[in-house]
Amino acid sequence: MPPSTLGFVDQGTAEGADFAPDIDLGRRHRVVVIGSGFGGLFATQALKRAEVEVTLIDRTTHHLFQPLLYQVATGILSEGEISPSIREILRRQRNARVQLGEVTGIDLVGRTVTSTVLGETAVTPYDSLIVAAGSSQSYFGNDQLARFAPGMKSIDDALELRGRIFMAFEMAELVEDEAERNRLMTFVVVGAGPTGVEMAGQISELSRRTLRQDFRRIDPRRAGVILLDAAPSVLGSFGDRLGAKAQARLDEIGVEVQLGAKVVGMDGEGIEVEDEDGRRRRIESVCKVWAAGVSASGLGALMAEQCDVGLDRAGRVKVQPDLTLPGHPEVFVVGDMIALAGMPGVAQVAIQGGRHAARQIIARLAGRPYGEPFEYHDKGSMATISRFSAVASVGRVRVSGLIAWLIWLGVHLFYLIGFKHRVTTLMHWAVSFIGRGRSERTITQQQIFAREAIEALGKGFSPTLSPGEREDPLT
Asked: Are 298 and 288 in the same domain?
């Protein structure tokens, strides 16, 4: 999910709803919410004053402010600043409870949700269901690439990338071979959307500002940062003018942008690309980041098997206009999981969709017309490139540079949950953007060795693919 502004939707009603709600007047209506991201959390909060019992199920205990994950990966913010505890957020909402577990089953006929954690299984009944399980990184059917290029979808991803980035500089300081040193000091980011642009910009600033005086045998300013994409432009969804400005700024801070370059192979020591003219070449690089695509949660396919509903190529559910499943008006799907015309995969869609689902449930219980079509209000989107530089698209307004960066700063501070998180984030930003420091540079042993994070840093660590396996893993 790329960074975006977040907004409200005005409440409305619909006429002619043909579903008679199954309500047991002897108990409260049970609402199960799957996922604690933007959609799930805001749907839960929108039900705060409703006569319902809400159970929020998630496989983690935190709400993730995903647009700032890249700052965790590059040492600007700690993971705690962008991932407050769900229980802390909802502690005063008496009609809501939090249940830890990964959802493994949804029974649409029996109206139950099955979740598991550490061998414990829970079956939770519902009267209404809101599925907001989000998305995961997509490697376009080549999931083996995750071994060499982690995505940017979770705290674990960000911490692993932090370990890989800082460890690359540490190992470059140690090695004697110049070719190996260059391989370690070349960083490749795949995907020139908002996440890729922000990540590439911050790696460049890290090497040229933060680390430039910290080493004795290497000059971090010589690190190469390459941004790859098969598309013909940077930030294509922002329009040609802002995309061109973003690319120009990336050039200024030392990021090499390579467009029309399709990834056709990868191993621990490099990446193979194919240019528009069909020519194949190899980029030697140990540290690679994947920011090229997303796929919806597998729960979409699980529901599709049980009812007459289709999925698009990204696994998103083709929902009804009111965000419900066909034949199941008690089941709402929101956020990155929906395939609905004109709906981008941004935080606004999740928040507005979650609130829309909550309003429909409240209307139904009150005996008012429900089934109102979901209406998305685009409040704009933005992406940072470097300190004091960003691009923002809000309606017909297109701005870049310092003004866009200040807008980005204010919006993200406002939507961070919790006063203490806003204060500490602002302090970290002051240290990083006004000064040169980055306080979150710790590399733990777990980060170093997790998922073979340093498999290519030396012969004694772990094996890479054999030459025969390297030729073209994507075919």
From this structure: no
Q: Any residues with CB less than 8 A from the CB of 467 and at least 6 apart, and which?
A: none
288 and 171 in a common domain: yes
**Overall number of domains in the chain:** 2
Is 198 among the residues known to form the active site? yes
pTM equals 0.85
Of residues 411, 382, 398, the one with CA closest to residue 3: 382
Write the CATH number for 348: 3.50.50.60
Give backbone dihedrals phi and psi of 124, rounded to 5 degrees, phi first: -115, 120
The tens-digit pLDDT sequence of the chain (475 residues) is 444 333 323 333 333 334 444 445 458 999 999 999 999 999 999 999 999 999 999 999 999 999 999 999 999 999 999 999 999 999 999 999 999 999 999 999 999 999 999 999 999 999 999 999 999 888 888 888 888 999 999 999 999 999 999 999 999 999 999 999 999 999 999 999 999 999 999 999 999 999 999 999 999 999 999 999 999 999 998 989 999 999 999 999 999 999 999 999 999 999 999 999 999 999 999 999 999 988 899 999 999 999 989 999 889 999 999 999 999 999 999 999 999 887 888 889 999 999 999 999 999 999 999 999 999 998 888 999 999 999 999 888 899 999 999 999 998 988 888 888 889 998 889 888 888 888 888 877 665 554 444 444 433 333 333 333 333 333 2
E-assigned strands of 275-412? Answer: 280-284, 287-290, 294-296, 324-325, 328-333, 381-386, 389-394, 397-401
Choose the catalytic residue: 81, 180, 198, 274.
198
Q: Are 417 and 229 in contact (CB under 8 A)?
A: no
Report the distance separating Cα 135 and Cα 120, nearest Å: 24
Q: Is the residue at 164 inside a domain?
A: yes
Strand 328-333 with 294-296, pairing: unpaired
Residue 312: which domain range? 29-59+101-137+294-365
